[in-house]
Amino acid sequence: TMSPVNSQVIITEVAPRDGLQSEVQWVPSEIKQHFIHLLQEAGVPEIECTSFVSPKWVPQMADNQQLWLGIHKKPGVSYLALVPNVQGLHLAIESKVEEVVVFGSVSEAFSLKNINCTIDQSIDKFSKIVALAQLHNIRVRGILSCTLGCPYEGPIEARQVVKVAEKMKAIGINRLGLADTIGVGTPNAVITLLDQIATIYPVHSLSAHFHDTYGQALVNIYACLQAGVRRFDSSVSGLGGCPYAKGATGNVATEELVYMLHGLGYHTGINLEKLIMAGDFMRNYLKNTNNSRVALAYLAKRS
Ligand code: HMG
Ligand code: MG
């Protein structure tokens, strides 16, 4: 049996950011805000709301400051924003963001495509972010893309991930997300990666971020759970993809993750029915297909 502490899983809902960033149709701030409010009412403990990146690169996130102002924050919920550079952090500071995520890559090619700089240049930018964030009492997390494969470089060795993770740790990033950007990983690769990274980032300081492109996300999350990981990113209704990773589809659907976790006896604090309705709201707005099979099953049964 699991101890109470061990049975708690923290889900970071990334649909407002990862889910919407590659949507070509403009989603007004009020719709995004309503979406965030539905998610927090469903009991989601952490919400990645937007990113302070160049609006030329990611037009859908151009309303970051206005969006942030209109979020009615719920006590106990953490609101996160991505920042790529000090310029983005300044905008986040103006918006009173309390926790930011710096996003790097373990693949040089992806780093150049996504944030227009090399890995070492990105580490340098992140260290400046960490320094400025400290002055403003802003928490900083990191996430690394392509940890199980790259759309440009192909397979990625665990030791390459370890190399970049060491650099993140050295600049004071104490919490790290491991992302499978294009969803190509399988469980043994996940286990190898977690095993090799454990000396730098103990399991309690890690989170996992799986895109479900090849249908491997849930089984990879199960492997992570077995290894002791208790933090996962997911996207309600499976929304999303990365604009700089060709063919990358959405993250694992939060509905699938919550359904599995509750079935396994883990606690998430999330009300699955309310969560499904939050995803359904955004899918209805976008007029596209819900990619959560749990949501589809629930909605079909209800109608
Ligand atoms: P750059 O062109 O090298 O930046 O882009 P720059 O510093 O040379 O500035 C160029 C222009 O951008 C200037 O404007 C700056 O003001 C502006 P101009 O003078 O031309 O009018 N600019 C900014 N504007 C607003 N906010 C900022 C900012 N910085 C510069 N923060 C940059 C570098 C990083 C800005 C650019 O490459 C960028 O914005 N990239 C966006 C990348 C992105 O958002 N990708 C998706 C998120 S990551 C992801 O999805 C993966 C993840 O989910 C994990 C996984 O699944 O792998 C996290
Ligand atoms: Mg992602």
Write a concise keyword list for the protein shown above.
alpha/beta, eight-stranded parallel β-barrel, binds 3-hydroxy-3-methylglutaryl-coenzyme A, binds magnesium ion
Describe this structure in words.
This protein starts with 9 loop residues before the first strand and ends with a helix. With 303 residues, it is an alpha/beta fold. The chain is globular and about 55 Å long. It has an eight-stranded parallel β-barrel with strand order 1-2-3-4-5-6-7-8, surrounded by six helices. It has twelve helices and eight strands. It has helices spanning 15-19, 29-41, 64-69, 86-94, 108-115, 119-135, 158-170, 187-197, 217-226, 254-264, 272-286, 293-302, and strands at 10-13, 46-51, 78-82, 99-105, 139-145, 176-180, 206-210, 231-234. It binds 3-hydroxy-3-methylglutaryl-coenzyme A and magnesium ion.
Mean pLDDT equals: 96
Give the biggest sheet.
8 strands, parallel, barrel
Distance between the termini: 38 Å
Query: Radius of gyration, rounded?
Result: 18 Å
Please mark out the parts with pLDDT under 50 across 5 or more consecutive residues, or reply none.
none
Spatially, the strands of the biggest sheet line up as 1-2-3-4-5-6-7-8
Short characterization:
Helix content is 42%, strand content 14%. The chain is of the alpha/beta class.
Q: What are the SSEs and their pairings?
A:
Layout: E1 10-13, H1 15-19, H2 29-41, E2 46-51, H3 64-69, E3 78-82, H4 86-94, E4 99-105, H5 108-115, H6 119-135, E5 139-145, H7 158-170, E6 176-180, H8 187-197, E7 206-210, H9 217-226, E8 231-234, H10 254-264, H11 272-286, H12 293-302
Bound molecules: 3-hydroxy-3-methylglutaryl-coenzyme A and magnesium ion.
